[in-house]
Design a protein that fits this description.
mainly alpha; 3 helices; 0% strand; 62 residues
Length: 62
């Protein structure tokens, strides 16, 4: 959603989800506390996705 808003309002050309959130903060669409929370959620999402693929591969082997 954050990347969609960045594109819609032409706020920049981010290369990552975190950059999208940082741009929304930079242009005062979201405050710093919310920015930190969202960035933490992005990190958790990335961790879960990578670990889920490892778990999925291990389950197939067994």
């Amino acid at each position: 959603m954050s990347c969609h808003l960045v594109a819609q309002y032409n706020l920049g050309n981010p290369k990552t989800y975190i950059e999208c959130v940082e741009l929304l903060n930079e242009f005062d669409y979201i405050d710093k506390r919310v920015t930190g929370n969202i960035i933490s959620m992005i990190g958790l999402r990335n961790l879960l996705i990578h670990e889920y693929s490892n778990i999925g591969i291990n389950c197939i082997i067994f």
